[in-house]
UniProtKB/TrEMBL annotation:
The keyword Transferase does not apply. Residues 33-181 form the DUF4136 domain. It comes from the Bacteria. Pfam families: DUF4136. The keyword Signal applies. Residues 1-31 form the signal peptide. This is DUF4136 domain-containing protein. It comes from Alteromonas arenosi. Keywords: Signal. The lineage of its organism: Bacteria, Pseudomonadati, Pseudomonadota, Gammaproteobacteria, Alteromonadales.
Length: 189
């Protein structure tokens, strides 16, 4: 009888460990998956022009363009005003439903020597506002009006002041440029 309960405790620990690993991996941030023209020779590109797709001229677009320029220059890419290669920025903030909630569970169970019965319920209580803001940035590298590389990423704006927006925008730019063919090639040479 003692061996059976020890085995059951071991199995319970194993099941809890598996649930914890699945929970952590489910919350992990997905990698940015860029799309590009595999036949294009990216090594020929020495310079480009950054164009922010913003008809209103908001400071946020100018700031994102500046962050991009700093990252590209650090990756040995020259940024000019008259290149045939264009890096188009499409950036906006959108509201999405808040997905943060606390789950409270309540359960009861009975157990006899050969069987057990359990009943439970769970209630989710939302945290914060019903809608939250997300910063979305898409980059398109264009040569002769044809997109040769594109990537898009987004992140939740947790702090909505200038510093909070800057940190989220920097985070997205870093993720987008991680597989940017010009900076990754320059870094490998």
């Amino acid at each position: 009888m003692l061996k059976l309960s020890t085995f059951g405790g071991f199995m319970l620990k194993k099941v809890l460990l598996i649930c914890m690993v699945l929970g952590i991996t489910a919350c992990a941030r997905q990698a940015v998956t860029p799309d590009f023209d595999p036949n294009y020779n990216f090594s020929n590109i020495q310079q480009l022009t950054i164009i922010a797709d913003d008809p209103e001229g908001t400071p946020s677009h100018r700031h994102i363009a500046l962050l991009l320029e700093q990252a590209l220059v650090a990756g040995n890419i020259k940024v000019t005003d008259d290149s045939n290669i264009k890096l188009l920025i499409d950036a906006y903030v959108e509201e999405r439903p808040n997905d943060q909630a606390i789950s409270i569970g309540l359960g009861t169970g009975t157990s006899t020597r050969n069987s057990s019965i359990g009943i439970g319920t769970s209630v989710q209580i939302p945290i914060g506002d019903d809608m939250v803001e997300w910063q979305v940035i898409q980059l398109d590298l264009v040569d002769n009006n044809q997109v040769i590389w594109t990537a898009r990423d987004d992140a939740k704006l947790k702090v909505k002041d200038g510093k909070g927006r800057h940190e989220v925008q920097q985070y997205i730019i870093d993720r987008l440029l991680a597989d940017f063919p010009l900076t990754t090639q320059q870094g490998n040479e």
